[in-house]
Amino acid sequence: MAILTRAVRRLALVLPLALLAPQAIHAQDPAPATPAYLTKEGQTPWIYEGSDVPRDEEWIFGKLPNGVRYAVRKNGVPPDQVSIRVRIDAGSLYEDDSERGFAHLLEHLLFRESQYLGPAMAIPTWQRLGATFGSDTNAETSPTHTVYKLDLPNIDAKKLAESMKILSGMVRAPVLSDANVKAEVPIVLAEKRERGGPQQRAAEKTRETLFAAQRLADRLPIGTDETLNAATGATVSAFYKRWYRPENTVIVAVGDIDPMQLAAEVEKYFGDWKGSGPSRPAPDFGDPKAPKGADPANPVGEVAAIVEPGTQRNFTYAIMRPWRPVQDTIAYNEGLLRDTLAQALINRRLEARARAGGDYLFAQVQQDDVSRSTDATFVAFAPLTGDWKAALADVRAVIADALINPPTQEEIDREVAEFASIFASSVEQRRVMAGAKLADDIVNAVDIRETVAAPETVLTVFESMKKTLTPQQLLDHTRQLFSGSVIRAAYLTPEAGEASEAAIRDALKAPIEAASDARIAAQEISFADLPAIGAPGTITQQGALGVLDIERVDFANGVRTILWANDAEPGRVSVKVRFGGGWRSIGPDDAAYATLGQMALVEAGVGELGQEELDRITTGRRMGFDFAIGDGVFTFLGQTRGQDLADQLYLFAAKLAMPRWDANPIVRAQAGARLAYESYAGTPAGVINRDLEYLLRAGDPRYKTPDPEMLAKATPEGFRKMWEPLLKQGPVEVLVFGDFNRDEAIAALTKTFGALPPREALPAAVLSNKATFPNSGETVVLHHMGEANQAAAAIAWPGGAGVENLRESRQLEILTQLFNNRLLDAMRERAGASYAPVVNNQWPTDVDSGGRITAFAQLRPEDVPAFFQAADKIARDLATTPPATDELQRVTEPLLQYLNRVSTGNLFWLYQLEGSTQDPMRIALLRSLLVDFTETTPEKMQALAQKYFGTAGWRLAVIPEGQKLATRVTATPAEAGR
């Protein structure tokens, strides 16, 4: 039963898009066959065996004679989609020593060639069916399972049958030839290489330490170079035959189609599957055990001091217990809830201590059942400095108090209110739960050997359990969480000599004095007691926006609002506030304050409310407060619900009218930004994250990632001096979309945003601030300090910006996806040079400059020239030769299905209409959205390519320190043989 884990009708949400497209006429689906192996009335479904958790009646279960288990369910979120999951009960923990990486390699091979798919035909086949590779068609390999995922849009009975047939051929009859293994291994090695680096090495060493003497210690799903390079068709087939068997398979299908049809297709295509040879039990994963002679009261075992330059400090210790299967009963889940409450109490205290100036940046306690290998309580924190002992003592002191003294009733009530809000919200939103999420919930439940429960059941269990809660009970659960067989620890630091294994062991064994000041003092805060924003505003204009039944309301102070009250997503309200000038308003010397603003502007407080008060006043409420800097606008964003909307609006408006400037959040953000900067140089991707935006803005200092020297010069006083005037500038637009009462929302807006003082105009210098694209020329070469076999490369062309040519930006998205497909084929399939190259189109709409098209890949240093050559060739070919119609449809069909799915949500319409009170052209352009994204011609694509790829692209290469950029393109094996 997942404790903390949409039949949306189309309504008017998708009608505007649907009406703009030619309507297909489908033959009536045939009546589904009657499944023969459904769980019968009175029988217990397989997932509920041994449990008294009430069954979620929307699920239908079945079990085939060969052992295949399945679960199906009707769900219309998003409309016309079916989500299918095929779970194989075998992951990396099932591998022999010589097979490390085979479970994941098999995942790749199933997509390469199978009974109904020729070599490399999986991606184009699924694209023709409207599924996007990587999101709609995907797979995952974990230590305990391999899952194949398919989200099929625009479903009907024929398409379902074809998809289930193809999927069955992949799972039941993959072609595991030497040739296919040889072709796929370089791609897996590329994936492994791109994951490598200091952080990965540190993670592996941490894993070896925390799970010492268990299979989990040295069986990463990605495998090893030695075992992967030694793989053959025969050895991979042996692993496949051992574990890919009916009795190890669970199939989940959820979607907008008769569930009997789903069940019938599962039975049809998997019912006659037979395993090869006798079935085998899973291997013994091992138990965590203390070393001989360990103190039973404090059984410190294996520890590690891990030195990796270019990483952030992190300390993790774990109190570990053997994992055992459980009976997933109501009583068991009540215990889990008490455990979770106990952890929440400690985590709130740890966060409060960090905010108040503790020796750590953050700290968290979390119990987890890891890969059916251990039941452990993990304590993780990031020391602010090299004084890790002080940080460890600080964290342990907070935990020590929780182990001695029971929590106060006020603390318990606060956490209970938070949980009650989460569970009640899940019940409210039950009918808008996405089918893909429901399918994943079943898969995860099977993996941890537990059941699933309806949101109503979870809420009922919680409501019943909370009546029995006592401080002593939570104290007992806290003590259980921090007792175990062995304690293990790993400390990651960039500095050699900072720690030793002996010092870590001694620090964990040292007695600790409980922090008497760890408790958070009770404090009553109410929105009703907060000062008014100002005198309620006056509405000057009110009426229909001209799209659906969306309304516009303007106030005398210049604030403009857009409202759409609808019940398509019960219990959800999205609020977005747009104000000011965004990056255009940032001064050339203010890069540090821009970065700190994204981290600490909200945390610095609102009116009379500091961080702790903001947390307390929103306890038990569904409220958010995200801040972002856009190209031409600043934004606040929050997800709330109807009953909390008025207070959500108050917080946003108060941040503009009466901002608070607490120093601690700014100082903490400085520390976080400094620690993050130190890790950028460790990998090519880190260097890209640090420098690419700055370089693509032609060295505009506003976009420079602040280094430690810049951060050290920043002060809380300077932070306020920069941000305070920016909060007063520029027009304000508020968008409220979702399940709320219209009249109440307008009344709340009148008292909040309508009550703001008149805004200052954006300075002329801000309005005229233009983004600059760098000149093409010699490749910019940067260096990283990580692995010698890692590099990254990017090539970019100037793109478009603004609303006037927005229709062209949509067509450019099609061209970009064509480019992406070709680059993926060139770099991954044919050479294995890069696992996942990406091409994207950035077209800002709030400004009229700054757009670009960028292609990026992680690869081997020697393959950087090949990447540039491939990108240049694709750009040239697109500009000289129109793409084939089939290639074009492989892009437009997934785009069409994607739009049909996302247009069922309020955020889609909010994002389309934001800014329309300043530029009404956005509303008019909405009418052509579907056509622009999904209808084009090869000739239009060629013309667009000639426009945007007519000049040489700007290039960046990130290579290892001490190496030079190769100038010769290394031939692939296939090219060398020609």
From TrEMBL:
Q: Any keyword Hydrolase?
A: yes
Signal peptide span: 1-27
Q: Which Gene3D superfamilies match?
A: Metalloenzyme, LuxS/M16 peptidase-like
Q: Which residues form the Peptidase M16 N-terminal domain?
A: 78-195
Location of region: Disordered: 275-296
Q: Give the UniProt keywords, A-Z.
A: Hydrolase, Metalloprotease, Protease, Signal
Q: Which Pfam families match?
A: Peptidase_M16, Peptidase_M16_C
Give a yes or no for keyword Hydrolase in this entry: yes
Domain spans labelled Peptidase M16 C-terminal = 234-417, 723-891
Entry's Gene Ontology molecular function annotations = metal ion binding; metallopeptidase activity
Entry-linked PANTHER family = METALLOPROTEASE, MITOCHONDRIAL-PROCESSING PEPTIDASE SUBUNIT ALPHA
Q: Which family does it belong to?
A: Belongs to the peptidase M16 family.
The protein's name: Insulinase family protein
Tell me which species this is from.
Qipengyuania soli
Upper lineage is: Bacteria, Pseudomonadati, Pseudomonadota, Alphaproteobacteria, Sphingomonadales
